[in-house]
Amino acid sequence: MFSPQGPSLRELAIQALSSVERGYDLLAPKFDHTPFRTPESILDAVADALRPLGPFGRGMDVCCGTGAGMRVLQPLCQARITGVDFSTGMLAQAHSTHPDAEWIRADVLALPFAGAFDLAVSFGALGHFLPAERPALFAGVYRALRPGGLFAFPIGAPPPITSAWYWALLGFDLTMRVRNAVWRPRFVMYYRTCALDAVHNDLTAAGFIVKTVPLAALGRREDGSPRCRLVLARRTGTP
């Protein structure tokens, strides 16, 4: 499915009926051949937006998956870069692609770091956390950053109600809610639970100073607003 190297429909069905961790363990060898991997255009746009704010010291990719975010961290960070994920399979794939980075298996809702990083990034991970879980996630990232450290991640604008994407994402989320209501273990993956205002409020409550910048390279919607913004959440305090 998706490409000759990607997973089959049967493989995707098995993964979708697994837990999040087990599902990604199974998907890991073929993950980079699916649309779920963060596109190069987004990685490049984020790197371009962060470059004037650097250079940075140590960097961390939160929910790193197979390590696509290393493309952003490597040229921006002058010290060690680290990927954190709870899927052993995804980390194994990441290590094979980026053997010089540090890879740590951990629950990102309880990150095992304190004041260790100058830059944290994350790509496509927020949908794996229910809104009630975001405060723990953001609090952990806040603790992991040094004073003045930056947490950055892209967040797309919601599609207009008249677009096919709006109804496709709504249908996906409804399907996942039904699946999680009748099947265990849960597989948490929703596309419509990460509204920018709600994420901004949760980051502010965790102690961050938050602003957003448009990722102009990714284009604009018909109303002129950006298709995607980069959230820049700065840990308070002097570096």
UniProtKB/TrEMBL annotation:
GO terms for biological process: methylation. It holds the Pfam family Methyltransf_25. Transmembrane segments: none annotated. One of its GO terms (molecular function) is methyltransferase activity. Gene3D superfamilies: Vaccinia Virus protein VP39. Residues 60-149 form the Methyltransferase domain. SUPFAM superfamilies: S-adenosyl-L-methionine-dependent methyltransferases. The keyword Transferase applies. Keywords: Methyltransferase, Transferase. It comes from the Bacteria. This is Class I SAM-dependent methyltransferase. It comes from Kribbella pittospori. The lineage of its organism: Bacteria, Bacillati, Actinomycetota, Actinomycetes, Propionibacteriales.
